[in-house]
Amino acid sequence: MLSTKGLNLTMLSIPCVKSQQLHDPQSTKLIAKFENPTQFQEDCDAGYDQFLSRNVVVRHRYFSHFLEQKQDLYEQLLILGVGLDTKPDTLPCLKNKAVYGCDLAVADIQNIYQATGVHTQTKLVACDLENGMDQQFLTRLQAQGFSLTKPTLVLWEGGTFYLSPEAVVHDLSFLNQQLNLVGLLVDYMSSAVFNPPRHEKARRQLDLVAKIGCPWKSFFTPVEIKQLDHKLGFTEINVTAHGKIEQRVFGKVQLDEDIMYLSAAFKSVAGTK
Ligand SMILES: C[S@@+](CC[C@H](N)C(=O)[O-])C[C@H]1O[C@@H](n2cnc3c(N)ncnc32)[C@H](O)[C@@H]1O
């Protein structure tokens, strides 16, 4: 048995949900050898109407849809705060793409893959997204084969809220300037629900993430998300409230309809619409 001591429990909770709810075989293998991997998931789900489980499924469905629908637009995928995301190893549309993932906890991630014997096609590069999105990070990415000129899609799922709003805007602006960025898939926790907390459940959620050492620091409105996407030069912009997808996937909205906003933004590329 492997111990969860010292690991970022939010990271392990995602394969737990994908194993239980989506029957994702790669996720099942990733958690199989851990002692108590569901601990954070259970605390989080119990305190807030199954928040974590429903949120992970909603995010996964929304982003997988766009990764597939826009597969001819991009040649490589860069995942920010990649954690143990299994999409690069399970989605058919990513099978022939080059996939790069950065994270603060790259050493933990590599240890988990090694200890479990699970293979990932994601090329992992260390980065602190709070203050490390710079030329040196790009150099480390390029050393793994990343191209600054190939059409690139950036996916940032379940991660912006761990950073300050300034860092979120800086990171996306920097990548937009430096890469051939054709698409951006990002989710944001809602200002209206968490800043300040709308109710006791939202307050407890903020206390829980602070207690495990991963406090939430940024919250956005749909207007702010659209303005940012426009400023970055995106022309096709979709911003969807969590509840819209929750309704579609689960047949009912159990969480606050506006608990999170998911966005997919694309640039028109010559020859495409
Ligand atoms: C909730 S997990 C989401 C993982 C993955 N994107 C997914 O959806 O399966 C958040 C991830 O963000 C990473 N993270 C948190 N703060 C970070 C920072 N300052 N820089 C880089 N990564 C960070 C964590 O290590 C963790 O892997």
From TrEMBL:
Pfam families: LCM. GO terms for biological process: methylation. Keywords: Methyltransferase, Transferase. It is an enzyme of class 2 (transferase). Its EC number is 2.1.1.-. SUPFAM superfamilies: S-adenosyl-L-methionine-dependent methyltransferases. GO terms for molecular function: methyltransferase activity. PANTHER family: S-ADENOSYL-L-METHIONINE-DEPENDENT METHYLTRANSFERASE YKTD-RELATED, S-ADENOSYL-L-METHIONINE-DEPENDENT METHYLTRANSFERASES SUPERFAMILY PROTEIN. This is Class I SAM-dependent methyltransferase. It comes from Fructilactobacillus ixorae.
